[in-house]
Write a structure and sequence with these properties.
about 375 residues; mainly alpha; about 0% strand
Length: about 375
């Protein structure tokens, strides 16, 4: 069975969540990268706060979906190399296209585009590749730990990562993110193996997740409109919790929503599954470091409508357009560009070397 058939036959609950998560990520990036906040109307600011503050929660959701399928899957070197190929292709091609059109691209960005993994461009993708590379070792440890040991590990991790992140200043280094990805591997693995089958009523999880997000948003809006040191502190705390996917409110919000969708039975929809295809391409294109300022201000002309009375409608229209256009570009890449990489001697040689290096752990 080919990959397209696998996708069309896959249940659509996670594919729907994947679409929602990517739309939230796009809206978060538009909110943080596209506007001069002093020129947005008050109603526009409230709209941006509501629609654009969930991007880091969506990152957790996107990560959870990937890990859900990863924990039971065989280690596939080809998947990693294909993902890296997409990352490299977009990094290099977009940078070169911008140079050809006369945009001023710094030397650092030009050099970095050829080494997107080492330079950790679009941080999520390189770190996800790292998680895939670590997954055989993580799975080996997971399989050897009993339920009690895993529960203790998750409890310690929750305290050392989530509690500390909640009460400390925001830290967002690559090492912190990789540690979080590993913790999420064991969290979702434990949930899938020991908990998911026991859960019957899931609406409460969705309501609780929405409630957490609503409390954060409302608190942030109130604190931003009142003066005083306590309200400034409250605004900073809300902003940190929304931005830090390791914080307890962010993590619990994402986990509750994920639990709801993991039990949602909507069958297999070819439409949903088709729309969800190439969501990661959407991310890899619109978050190229030298490209996204140009995308928002030049291509989407965000400064021309940031004060418009139709701001909300244009905002949503741009979000949907970015998703559709870049998803289609992703399909073109997979259909016409990726085969050259997959059939190349370099791909075969790297694949063989990695399989040989991993042979001892994969064969035991």
């Amino acid at each position: 069975m080919n990959s397209n058939n696998k996708l069309s036959n896959r249940k659509s609950n996670f594919e729907l969540l994947r679409i929602i998560a990517m739309l939230l990520i796009i809206m978060g990036h538009i909110s943080g990268q596209a506007f001069d906040s002093t020129r947005i109307t008050e109603s526009g600011k409230i709209f941006v706060t509501i629609m654009g503050s969930g991007s880091r929660i969506a990152v957790n959701l996107f990560l959870m979906i990937g890990i859900w399928f990863m924990v039971d899957a065989e280690f596939r070197v080809e998947q990693i190399l294909k993902l890296y190929g997409g990352l490299w292709f977009y990094s290099v091609s977009i940078t070169l296209i911008l140079i050809c059109f006369g945009f001023d691209i710094g030397t650092k960005d030009i050099i970095s585009c050829f080494f997107p993994y080492l330079r950790c461009w679009m941080w999520f993708v390189p770190l996800y590749i790292s998680l895939l590379l670590l997954s055989p070792f993580l799975k080996k440890a997971f399989d050897h730990l009993n339920k009690g040991a895993l529960r203790l590990l998750l409890g310690l991790g929750f305290f050392l990562i989530c509690v500390v992140s909640t009460v400390s200043k925001f830290m967002d280094t690559k090492l912190c993110a990789l540690l979080w990805f590993i913790y999420m591997y064991y969290t979702i693995g434990y949930y899938k193996k020991f908990v998911a089958g026991e859960i019957k009523k899931t609406k409460r999880f969705l309501l609780f997740g929405v409630l957490i997000y609503s409390i954060l948003i409302i608190s942030g809006i109130i604190c931003s409109r009142l003066s005083g040191e306590i309200f400034n502190y409250g605004r900073r705390i809300v902003s940190q919790y929304l931005s830090d996917y390791k914080s307890i409110p962010n993590f619990m919000c994402a986990l509750c929503i994920f639990v709801f969708f993991s039990k949602l039975d909507i069958g297999s929809s070819s439409i949903i599954n088709g729309i969800s295809k190439n969501t990661l391409d959407v991310y890899m294109i619109h978050q190229q470091t030298p490209f996204y300022p140009i995308l928002w201000t030049v291509v989407c002309r965000s400064h021309s409508w940031q004060s418009s009375k139709y701001f909300c409608f244009v905002f949503l229209g741009v979000t949907i357009a970015v998703y559709i256009v870049f998803s289609l570009i992703g399909r073109i890449r997979v259909r016409f560009i990726e085969p050259f990489w997959v059939k190349s001697k370099l791909f075969d040689k790297i694949s063989t070397l990695i399989k040989k290096a991993y042979g001892s752990i994969l064969n035991t």
